[in-house]
Write a structure and sequence with these properties.
With 241 residues, the protein is α/β, with parallel strands linked by helices. It has seven helices and nine strands; from the N terminus they run βαβααβαβαβαβαβββ. Strands 5-4-3-2-6-1-7-9-8 form a nine-stranded mixed beta sheet. Helix 4 links the parallel strand 3 and strand 4. It is globular and about 50 Å long. It starts with 18 loop residues before the first strand and ends with a strand.
């Protein structure tokens, strides 16, 4: 059974940030990569759900690690999904975004070379100047953020300059951790795949500094859809506020 991710009630933006959706796939043992990428954990149905969720977003964000490992774009892979967005008064494709403090980005990847979707690059004032210049050369807009508050400043820019109402975050663990630390994640869409990865140091959905029992963000289950054909379970959680 597959839920419909194209028509969901999205969280309302605030003056300082868009409503934030986080979408991840993980194994039964809570890992998000196998042999370095997420490929092999989720099925083609999970990939379809990811594209459907993009229908609702104004911006699709990935961290630098995800871009290096798997590449990324904001493409929908289905013209019907693009028409659905257009019918709602949105651009046919959302804007793709990447955040990198190091500037260690693969500038020859689709994110930088394609022109069928808009994209924006976020770096910080601590990013080496040569990496900033390399990003500018690609022609993608570059925004320099204060390193001390990069994630919060990025969200403000998306809301106040890009007028984004909904941000979809597709990982990885570092950017997820930064947004949870800001308590800026409104909903989590999680696919659990029927595979065990193992490995003490294998990446999990959220990195960074652990929360405590007192500070851990709590979420309420909105739905759980099992798929007997793929063995996956599709979960939706909403932040308790």
């Amino acid at each position: 059974m597959k839920p419909d991710y194209t028509s969901i009630d999205t969280p309302a933006p605030t003056p300082d940030r868009p409503g934030v959706l986080l979408n991840m796939v993980m194994s039964l043992d809570g890992k998000v990569v196998i042999e370095g990428t997420e490929q092999g954990i989720g099925s083609s149905v999970d990939q379809l759900l990811m594209r459907e969720l993009r229908v609702n977003a104004d911006v699709v964000l990935n961290g630098a690690g995800t871009l290096r490992a798997s590449g990324t774009s904001s493409r929908l892979g289905d013209d019907a999904l693009a028409r659905l967005r257009a019918g709602r008064g949105k651009p046919r494709l959302p804007t793709a975004a990447v955040l990198s403090a190091s500037g260690d980005l693969p500038f020859d990847r689709t994110f930088f070379t394609a022109r069928d979707f808009d994209a924006i690059v976020y770096m910080t004032d601590s990013t080496p100047a040569d990496r900033q210049e390399a990003a500018r050369i690609t022609g993608r807009p570059l925004v320099i953020l204060p390193a001390a508050e990069a994630a919060a400043a990025m969200l403000r820019h998306m809301r106040q300059t890009l007028a984004a109402e909904v941000l979809l975050v597709e990982g990885g663990p570092a950017i997820n951790a930064a947004l949870f630390a800001l308590d800026a994640v409104d909903e989590v869409f999680l696919t659990v795949g029927p595979v065990v990865v193992g490995g003490q140091d294998t990446l999990t959905p959220v990195g960074g500094t652990p929360f405590t029992r007192e500070t851990a963000p709590r979420f309420s289950l909105v739905w759980a859809h099992p798929n007997s054909e793929t063995g996956e379970v599709y979960l939706r959680y909403r932040r308790q506020r």
